[in-house]
Design goal:
By secondary structure, the chain is mainly alpha-helical. 46% of the residues lie in helices and 10% in strands. A three-stranded antiparallel β-sheet has the order 1-2-3, covered by helices on one side.
Length: 368
């Protein structure tokens, strides 16, 4: 529906299309307003008022989005986006079954998704149970990460000419007040964990703790990436894998040099193109390290330790507590920005306090 109207001496264009209202000042000429009305009617037909040229279903976009990530990104990235789109599908199915087309995905609908994920009660068994026995929905930080995933998908829809404007622009992230405390192993816990390790896995987990590598970086580590003579590990791109934040070098400590040297002797037939740890060649590679870690942690009686990434936190945390500056930790960890490294800053209050005493300022004592 479209019309023109006059207010004072000014003519306005007023139209509504697919539930969206557009009002625009034209000028003092009625003739110009009539031409603008005709032009608007043509533009509505061509879908040029902020809507897609070719409207598609949200389901179709999700499939195209996942296929794009399957081709262009790592398996871990695909998994993350698959989880996000699964939540979005569930929300639309359970709460907004009337929303089918991409053009219907408004900021209001996405706000509903935030509420759905933040406040829902998930029943693991699919039975009616009391809320006391149910598990609450996603944490605020998790919801914000999911919103970023949806935003990425809709940005691709714009690139593919299915959408003119991203409705996520009008959606604010949740204020995060439920941040979980950083978990890292104490020196005593590290020793207990390594002592409980099976012989075959000891070099793997020791390397994790001594380098702070990401899980995929260690899994795809080749012997040619390790220079024992120069005591360097090179995190570099492979034909079937690329590092998350670019290539970098990690120095090899005295203890790690001994561990890797012994590990290489036990694998004398290995070529420079062989994996150092044959994890990705294992059919259970995706969860194998985590499953084994949980078993070892239980054996060593270490509580709240179920993630491989905790070993990466352990590496960084102990560096900071030993007085290593944050820019150096950032470089060793391969963080793309210092903000990520700042999560460890609270671990070195003594180091920060001593820093002010290093100012090259001499106090001049005056006689009163």
């Amino acid at each position: 529906m479209a019309r023109i109207y006059q207010r004072g001496k000014i003519w306005y264009l007023d139209l509504t299309y697919k539930g969206r209202r557009v009002r625009k000042k034209v000028g003092t000429s009625k003739r110009m307003a009539e031409l603008a009305l005709k032009d608007a009617e043509i533009k509505i037909i061509k879908d040029e008022y902020g809507f897609s040229k070719t409207d598609i279903s949200i389901e179709s976009l999700i499939e195209k989005f996942l296929e794009y990530n399957r081709t262009n990104h790592r398996v871990s990235t695909l998994k993350r986006y698959k989880a996000v789109t699964d939540h979005l599908r569930r929300y639309l199915t359970e709460k907004r079954s009337d929303i089918i087309l991409l053009s219907q995905l408004t900021p209001e609908i996405i706000e509903g998704y935030k509420t759905f994920r933040r406040d829902e009660w998930i029943n693991p068994n699919g039975k009616s149970i009391d809320s006391d026995n149910a598990r609450k929905g996603a944490r605020g930080r998790t919801v914000n990460l999911e919103l970023e995933g949806i935003k990425t998908m809709l940005n691709l829809a714009i690139r593919w000419d299915y959408l003119r404007e991203n409705p996520m622009k009008q959606v604010k992230p949740l204020k995060v007040d439920d941040k979980k405390a950083l978990r890292f192993l104490t020196a005593e816990e590290c020793n207990r964990f390594l002592e409980a390790c099976p012989k075959v896995l000891y070099p793997v987990y020791f390397t994790f703790i001594a380098t702070g590598m990401r899980k995929s970086e260690l899994e795809y580590l080749l012997w040619k990436d390790i220079d024992l003579a120069r005591r360097k590990i090179y995190i570099c791109q492979k034909p079937n894998w690329q590092p998350k934040t670019g290539e970098r070098e990690i120095p090899i400590s005295d203890d790690l040099l001994e561990i890797l040297s012994k590990h290489k002797k036990r694998n004398r037939k290995a070529t420079k193109d062989d994996y150092v740890f044959h994890i990705v060649e294992n059919d259970r590679s995706h969860n194998m390290l985590r499953n084994e870690l949980i078993k070892i942690a239980e054996k060593a009686e270490i509580e709240d330790f179920t993630k491989v990434h905790t070993l990466r936190h352990t590496f960084a945390s102990h560096l900071v507590m030993a007085g290593v500056d944050l820019p150096t930790v950032q470089k060793l960890m391969g963080h793309s920005d210092i903000e990520t490294t700042m999560i460890y800053s609270h671990l070195s209050p003594e180091h920060l306090s001593s820093a002010v005493n290093k100012l090259p300022i001499n106090v001049i004592k005056r006689n009163k």
